[in-house]
Structures are given as C-alpha cells and as structure tokens.
Amino acid sequence: xxxxxxICGLAASLAALxxxxxxxxxxxxxxxxxxxxxxxxxxxxxxAMPPKTPVRPQGPxxxxxxxxxxxxxxxxxxxxxxxxxxxxxxxxxxxDIAIALYPDNYQLxxxxxxxxxxxxxxxxxxxxxxxxxxxxxxDPLLLVNRAQAYRGFNRDREALxxxxxxxxxxxDFIGALFxxxxxxxxKKRYKEALADFEKVAELDPHLPxxxxxxAVTYESLGDRKRAMKELEDFLKVTKHKGWTAIARKQLNxxxxxxxLPEIDFAALERKAEEQAKVAKKxxxxxxxxxxxxxxxxxx
Length: 299
Known about the structure:
By secondary structure, this protein is mostly helical. Helices cover about 70% and strands about 0% of the residues. It is extended, with a radius of gyration of 25 Å.
C-alpha cells in the first residue's frame, strides 16, 4: 500500500510540474509534447486526395476561409502555430476544417488525436487514430498514441501490443520505451519495466524521468539500497528544481525506512554557497595580484 501511494503521488506531482510521470493506476501516460507533435508533422510526407465535392468553409463576414486551399501539411502548421501561441480552441477548429477537406489524411488525424488525448477524449482520439493507421500502419508515434487511447479504456493488452509494434519499427523511440516501461510497472512487471527505463536512460542520459523511474523500480524490486544509490547519483546531475525536490523527499523517505538519518539538503546547499563565495573571493584576489607580479619581474 505504501509503495503504491508513492507512485501515485509522484505521478500527480510531475503532472503539475509539466513533467513526464511514471504511470499510476487509472492514469493514461503523459501526452507527447508540442515539440514532438511539431516534429511529427514535419517528418511525415505525402497527402491524401481531397474529396470530390468538398465543403467550402466560410470565414468572417461570409468570406471564403483563407485556409481553404491549403495542403494538409500547411493546415497542420496552422494548427500547431495556434497551439504554440496558446490558442488550443482555434487549433482544434483549424483541424476540424482541414479534416472536412481531407478526411483520410493521417497527419491531420494524428495531430487532432493528440489534442483529444490531452483532454482525455479517448473515444474521439481512437476514432482519428484508426483512420490514420489505415494508411500508416507502422507509424511509431501513431501507435504510441493509440496505445494511450486504449489505456483510457483500460484496454492494456492492446496498448502493450501497439507499444511493442512501435518499438519493433523504431527500437530507439523513447516515447514508446518510456510508456511501455510505465505500463509494465503498473502491472508489477518490474524487471521488464526496469529494462525499458534503463534503455531510455541510455538513449537520453539527461532525461530526469527515466533516471527517477529506475530508482523507483529498484525499490519495487526490493532493492532499496540500490534505489537510494540511483537517487543519490540522480541528484548529482539533475538541475531541475522540481525533480530535485521530489527526489530529495523520496530519498529521505527511504533513508527513514532503512533507519538512517535524513539528509539536511538545505544545510548542504548553504555550505556549497559559502564555499563558492570563498573560491570566488580567492580567485579575484589572485587576479588582482598578477599585474603586480608582472611589474616586479620587469624591474
């Protein structure tokens, strides 16, 4: 019970920080970021033919919408621009108009599905992804997103199949590996989860979520000492305040369980600041002394 509480609390905390979280019970994995969606739209190529009798969407004052003649790729760019500037409603409207023109285009369906997933509209996301995957059955990002939609309906077996498929297609796809590790963890398949998280950390050593999840998984495997060592190493390299606060709290919780004294991180920070000030002062003094030494050598 205590271990589950730790994982659920972690997921909630990281979600508030806008960070990827280890999947908790009844919680879908974190959505791809805007940057990932932009990358997705820029790397996909090709377009579907428009329907024979498309509806001409109207803009303000009954004028033809200027986006009417855009290609699917341009429509995606318009939607992502709205998202980048904090206009999700306008982004969704742009996608709706574009999909009315190009109903079978996988790019448009994929991006709209991502937005639906962000708002936990799993049925609508799944409908879009089914259309997109008909023309792109091996697209790893579409597969990962469909896995997320499946998880919204607790269809975990199908979600795992999609994640496995995505990793077969692209073995170094961090999004698929991370989400599969989270799913394994939720199902208490800790060894499989650890393998996925370690692969993620190998591919991106600077991704805080992977290193943290490795520590949590070791603790779940019953190796708390290794888990503590992983968190200590993690704290040496992470510079993100949110991750640092969570890791420090978790480390001290585990130390308490092991009968060890808590680490006073505030005191360590003060000591480090004092040492930095002394080093800076000594450096300034040494720099001021060099011109005098040079002058004495000339004499």
